[in-house]
């Protein structure tokens, strides 16, 4: 068995980065773990936000249900985040690749969070 347990997300401000992802997913930021601000995504995966080496653009993709998708997009709109139908394309459109819905939400550090739903 192989399970991705955690990964480090390099950001300019670990607290801001963790709060942003937690807000998109409707989660809480965990207690600090050493130099990291962790967001536990599910029972198997935690994203550890780290600001010790500065921000680097990245791409993190999440398969979500319709409720999480709608909530993430609403959070992005309320927060004034850039979003669109393809990576780095700010067209405020949802794609329908693979038969579901997909969107890319950009954070201030250039990280693209992709949210997509399964084929209905």
Automatic annotation (TrEMBL):
<dbReference type="InterPro" id="IPR029068">
    <property type="entry name" value="Glyas_Bleomycin-R_OHBP_Dase"/>
</dbReference>
<dbReference type="InterPro" id="IPR037523">
    <property type="entry name" value="VOC_core"/>
</dbReference>
<protein>
    <recommendedName>
        <fullName>VOC domain-containing protein</fullName>
    </recommendedName>
</protein>
<feature type="domain" description="VOC">
    <location>
        <begin position="3"/>
        <end position="118"/>
    </location>
</feature>
């Amino acid at each position: 068995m192989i399970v991705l347990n955690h990964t480090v997300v390099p950001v300019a401000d670990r607290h801001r980065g963790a709060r942003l992802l937690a807000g998109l997913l409707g989660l809480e930021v965990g207690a600090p773990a050493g130099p990291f601000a962790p967001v536990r995504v599910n029972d198997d995966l935690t994203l550890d936000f780290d600001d010790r080496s500065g921000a680097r653009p990245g791409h993190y993709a999440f398969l979500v249900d319709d409720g999480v998708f709608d909530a993430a997009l609403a959070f992005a709109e309320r927060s004034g985040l850039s979003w669109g139908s393809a990576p780095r394309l700010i067209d405020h459109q949802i794609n329908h690749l693979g038969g579901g819905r997909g969107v890319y939400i950009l954070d201030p550090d250039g990280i693209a969070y992709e949210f997509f739903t399964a084929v209905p």
